[in-house]
Amino acid sequence: MAFAHLDGRHFCTLLICTTFVSVPSNAEIKVNPPEDFEIVDPGYLGYLSLQWQPPLFLDNFKDCPIEYELKYRNIGSKYWKTVITKNLHYKDGFDLNKGVEAKIHTLVPAQCTNGLEVRSSWSEATYWTSPRGNEDTKVREMDCVYYNWQHLLCSWKPGVSAHLVTNYQLFYWFEGLKHAIQCPDYIKANGKNTGCRFPHLESSDYKDFYICVNGSSESHPIQPSYFIFQLQNIVKPLPPEYLSLTVENSEEVNLRWSMPKGPIPAKCFIYEIEFTEDDTTWVTTTVENEIQITRTSNESKKLCFLVRSKINMYCSDDGLWSEWSDEQCWKGDKWKETVVFFLIPFAFISLFILVITCLLLYNQRALLKTIFQAKKEVFSHQETFF
Ligand SMILES: *[C@@H]1O[C@H](CO)[C@@H](O)[C@H](O)[C@H]1NC(C)=O
Ligand SMILES: *[C@@H]1O[C@H](CO)[C@@H](O)[C@H](O)[C@H]1NC(C)=O
Q1: pLDDT more than 90, % of the chain
Q2: So what CATH class is 27-127?
Q3: pLDDT confidence band for 274 (50 / 70 / 90)
Q4: 353-380 as b/e, with b when 16 or more CB fall inside 10 Å?
Q5: What architecture does CATH give domain 135-235?
Q6: In the chain, where does the domain assigned CATH 2.60.40.10 lie?
């Protein structure tokens, strides 16, 4: 009620007063930034640890829950990631092709001061992997595919200016491994490593998978390349099998297929169907392994379809289409089937009978001829005797 009677000028005075009262008291409260802030690389190919020690002279805030506000990013990226924590370390994945920068300050929550949160100045740190070789020595066209959610395969091409004697090596790591592991089974071309067949990878999905391809030669240094991806996003399934096409009535056609064999659950597939009716082809998708299609014309002579599969959005953010399945077709009307099933065999049988008859007739003629000749001979013998 009292406020209702305040005019604009009074209200302003009130605000200015409160500001004046609080500023001097807060200015007295100061806190130091965290000590020994550093970015530590444990050798996990991009998974780094940011760590620090409590600020000096914390005694003023004995019963106060001190917090830290941490900001970090790859050098060159637009946005900082921000984390508020009470711990003295924080871990996250970074792209080691670039540098890393981070800053941290101490936060004293409002309840320990006179109502305003107090922050220290920033402590800063940066990290670069030791640079080696020039840009042109890095591998090119790195390509990794997780076939049927079972077999991971990566391949690459040598850098443009990579020296002839240099060879590449691949290391990988994901959360759960004690240390980075070198590829146990390289794909080779002319004695050089150009790819890696990974061993069976247990509990490696839905987490960052880190790869580093560097060089073995010290005399001709190679710049390492770093890659981060999640395995479920690079799955290429097998094509669907056992396609069947049933013409239900004059309008509807039922298409069915069985999902590819392997460890991928049925609920993770999306299928793309390419359906051809005479000369028109169109494409549709479904998450079931069958689909009902309406023909555009009940006169169509030829219906065909093929299917390919991919991991759907419920199981991954991305994926690769499988190869197309074999094509399955339905051709023409009933009378054509009649031709195939009755007329052709009938024609064959008729032809067979005809041939047999001819042969028999031919043989019979030959027989008659020999009999006739024999008779003639006997007759001529008789003639000579007489
Ligand atoms: C390649 O990277 C691995 C893993 O980080 C490291 O152990 C190895 O020493 C590196 N090799 C070269 C030649 O730098
Ligand atoms: C095709 O469809 C038309 C109209 O829907 C119908 O009148 C006709 O009988 C159908 N023909 C055949 C061969 O089913």
Answers
A1: 55
A2: mainly beta
A3: very high
A4: eeeeeeeeeeeeeeeeeeeeeeeeeeee
A5: Sandwich (2.60)
A6: 27-127, 135-235, 237-335
pLDDT digits (tens, 9 = 90+) for 109-154: 888 887 888 899 999 999 999 777 788 888 999 999 999 999 999 9
| Residue of 65, 59, 64, 56 lying closest to 87 (CA atoms) | 65
Q: 343, exposed or middle or buried, with CB in 10 Å at 0-12, 13-18, 19+?
A: exposed
Gap from CA of 101 to ligand 1 centroid (Å): 23
Two tokens, residue 255: 């298409």
Does the domain at 237-335 match CATH 3.30.1340.30? Answer given as no
Which residues have CB under 6 Å of ligand 2?
250, 298
Q: pLDDT per residue over 181-205, tens digit each? A: 999 999 998 888 999 999 999 889 9
Reference 207, options 163, 241, 157, 173; nearest CA is 173
* Contact (CB, 8 A) for 270 and 286: yes
Are the C-beta atoms of residues 297 and 315 closer than 8 Å to each other? no
294 C-alpha to center of ligand 2: Å? 14
Only one residue has tokens 């792209």, namely: 95
More confident of the two residues 76 and 11: 76
State the pTM of this model: 0.74
Residues, the chain, total?
A: 386
| Ligand 2 centroid distance, CA of 256 (Å) | 25
More confident residue, 56 or 8: 56
215 lines ligand 1 (CB under 6 A): yes
Ligand 1 mutation pick, 97, 170, 171, max ligand atoms within 8 A of CB: 171
